């Protein structure tokens, strides 16, 4: 199995995974979305809320603020405090702001400097003169499979590597214009159409459908053992950490399964 990095930034990545099968690729995708643990606000103790938002609306917005993850925290279900809350399984963030002001995620004051909003500029509510929000938010570790607030991978997907081949065909002069410009270099003469950057083709199924209906000048096929991954993190982890965590989770489950089989 090989990985070729195409793009890599703090919160997003694009890479080609080769030498594996759809089951493993989908396992990685699902783990990034559902199984990588993150911290998110689960409970809110409201002292004052005279904003235009109901308490429940405000609570929903707070829950969806991504928080940077600290691996020292564990899920409450695994903690020795039996769900009562302790420094190992929960972190407190306070918010005390008065209008007139736009309240941003960066206004949170966290009890743990390692657990902060992943983005300081997420707008929460606009306060007019005399309005106030004062609360304590409690964040717990959880999983995306339980609630979207804990979903670390927000846009994780893959596609097979497309293979575009051009052939001369006088009947396809019109349909070739529907091929994504990023994937194929267009030309007036069909004979001069060439592949440009096949990895940027986002509509291979659409293109294949078009050309199967006509006498094809272009053929679009897929390599079923190579995958182009696009990964975006919510900021709780870097994109690289998110992929590595998901691989570790699959590895851990495989080992656990193996150990169970050995004990049978
Ligand atoms: Zn605890």
Summarize the structure.
With 264 residues, the chain is of the alpha+beta class.
- The class by helix and strand makeup works out as alpha+beta
User: So, the CATH homologous superfamily of the largest domain?
Assistant: DNA-directed RNA polymerase, insert domain
- What is the arithmetic mean of pLDDT? 85
The general outline is: flat
Determine the number of helices (DSSP H or I, runs of at least 4 residues): 4
Major β-sheet, in short?
4 strands, antiparallel
Assigned CATH architecture of the largest domain? Beta Complex
Total domain count: 2
Q: Which bin fits the share of residues in helices?
A: 10-25%
CATH class of the largest domain: Mainly Beta
Question: What is the CA-based Rg, rounded?
Answer: 24 Å
Strand order of the largest sheet: 1-2-12-9
- Quantity of strands, as a count: 12
How is the CATH topology of the largest domain named?
A: RNA Polymerase Alpha Subunit, Chain A, domain 2
Q: Helix and strand succession?
A: EEHEHEEEEEEEEHEH
What's the topology here?
Blueprint (H helix, E strand, L loop, with lengths): L1 E7 L3 E7 L3 H13 L3 E12 L5 H9 L26 E9 L2 E4 L4 E2 L12 E5 L4 E11 L14 E10 L17 E2 L8 E2 L8 H10 L4 E15 L6 H25 L1
Helix pairs in contact: 1-4
This protein binds zinc ion.
